[in-house]
Amino acid sequence: MAIDGKNVATLHWPDMLRVLRLRPEDTTVEQGTTLFAKRYPQAQVCKRDSGAPYALLRVHTVTLVSGDAAVCVHQRPIAGHTNESGSMPALLDDLKAAYGKNRLFSLVTTDAGNTSCGIAGKTVSLGLDYFMQLKSPHGEIHSEAQDVLSRRRKSRAHAGYTDTQNGQVVTYHLWRYDLGEDGWLDWTHARQLVRIQRTAECQRTGEVTVGNRYYVTSRSPDTMSPRTALATCRAHWRCENNTHWTSEAELMEDRRRPAWSRHPQGSLVVSALRMIALCILAVARKLSRFGYSEETPSWRQVAEHFLLKLCASNLETKAFDTV
């Protein structure tokens, strides 16, 4: 399972006052934001030095990246008073309650925003393993990963491969460091540190870019080989490519004006319904092939197919033209 955070709606000051049934001329910023935060704790109220405040509706999405269709199987609001990391323990409890008995997954992957020693320990206590990205805010363990892995040469890489992506030749190299059975400092459950270097060369201009990412995992070298670790890192980003980017770019969610809902609860409900619809499309797309070429149809083609089937009886009406 790949866990990632996503902002699903932004409510501006007029929307906030409308939901509260307050008039701008009778309400101060402090009064409005305090009441809004109390009434809708799932919204994050943001104040600015200049300009009107606004509220964000955020969720954690959980994507089964090991599945063929990489569907989102769980979505949970991030509480307004905290961040992604602060909402992770409750999310892990939800996942354990929902999927613990059927053993749908055994490994959790996160980006740096959802990584901490406490979250890692919570994951292991629930009988799961983790593969988490590290960055400088994580302090000593990130520094340790850099110390033991940053100077490794490509000739000593434990795994690597080359791919072509969007007009670029991309090469990945992976190095790992065995932490043994005792882990490292408070990370007693950690078993490996991993560095992955991505080198991309533009075929048109010859420009080369190099980036490094560091990870920590509770799986030992015996249970997670270098090639498996590299595949796990790449698979994590299916939560973005198959869930968030598909919704925003392929299905043009970002272009929709006005929003489906300008109510905090309504925005979360619409987000969940849209994710259910996206999962249905993902499975249908994965199972579909063009008879003449055996190619997988595009997201837009699958969506249009469903739309035409659902609206077959209304094709000649003004209602369909509106859709």
How is the topology of this model organized?
Blueprint (H helix, E strand, L loop, with lengths): L1 E11 H8 L8 H11 L3 E4 L7 E10 L8 E6 L6 H16 L7 E4 L6 H9 L3 E6 L5 H10 L9 E7 L2 E11 L13 E11 L5 E10 L8 H11 L1 H13 L13 H24 L11 H12 L7 H5 L1
Parallel strand pairs: 1-5, 5-6
Antiparallel strand pairs: 1-3, 2-3, 3-4, 6-10, 7-8, 8-9, 9-10
Helix pairs in contact: 8-9
Tell me what portion of residues adopts beta-strand conformation: 15-25%
Helicity level, as a percent range? 25-40%
Evaluate the radius of gyration: 23 Å
How many strand units? 10
The H/E string reads EHHEEEHEHEHEEEEHHHHH
Distance between the termini: 34 Å
Which geometry do the CA atoms define?
globular
**How many domain regions?**
2
SS-based class: alpha+beta
Main β-sheet description: 10 strands, mixed
What would the average pLDDT be, to the nearest integer? Answer: 90
Number of alpha- plus pi-helical segments:
10
